[in-house]
């Protein structure tokens, strides 16, 4: 009986560990598009009417087309989306978020490619690729601090507390997305300069996305909820987002949609949106 109870404990504990929520999760990303592709997406009846809760937002310093999911969202920009800047198609930035207070401090990331920002609202780890430019940060990890959490979420902050993924976003928009086909972004494929391979692998594996597969010029990192594919290319001058993997509500027949230079392929319970 003792051995049976021990075996049951191992099975239960193992199951609990397998279902544990990752402490770092994708929150959102933006991608700059050419004007034709942006307008095709902005004017698509399919995207706005049934595929996703989406809208164009005009904010103080930028404007863009937003595609909202339950826990994640996508910002699509045109070349003049950000005031005072000219975006190049392919430019992008991804924000990952900490789901537990103190997680960011526990990450053993190499200071040679990480820049830390810390203020009253957020603690932020910026990934700096020296292959590209010291000022360019294609990935970042944010963690809410007490001032922002209590002001935005309207709940009491406690050290070591667990955050809901949507705490970083608009809960009203998250709730509105439940009536649409698109549920969440669950995968990103990046093109990375080969010279930056070691740093990129180190960043993701130490941020809770362990390496699950290695092949020539390709590494797959997966935290059990989201998959990150890193494609290493000798001729890549910057980090690009090749495609996004989207989780859908329901199962659907295979169908392709084209929006300018981008392609959306729906198949089964997922969709793949290709940009490069």
Give the CA-CA distance, first to last residue.
59 Å
Task: Encode the helix/strand succession as letters.
Answer: HEHHEEEEHEEEHHEHEEEEE
Low-confidence stretches: 1-19
Computed structural class: alpha+beta
What is the overall number of helices? 7
Q: What is the helical fraction, as a range of percent? A: 10-25%
Widest beta sheet: strand line-up: 2-3-4-1-5-8-7-6
Estimate the mean pLDDT confidence.
Answer: 89
Name the overall outline.
globular
Please supply descriptive tags for the structure shown above:
single chain; 276 residues; alpha+beta; 8-stranded mixed sheet; 6-stranded mixed sheet; 22% helix
Can you describe this structure?
The protein has 276 residues and is of the alpha+beta class. The protein has one domain. 22% of the residues lie in helices and 41% in strands. The protein has 7 helices and 14 strands. The strands form 2 sheets. The chain has an 8-stranded mixed β-sheet. A 6-stranded mixed β-sheet has the order 10-11-12-9-13-14. A hairpin with a 2-residue loop joins β13 and β14. It is globular, with a radius of gyration of 20 Å. It starts with a helix and ends with a strand. Residues 1-19 have low confidence and may be disordered.
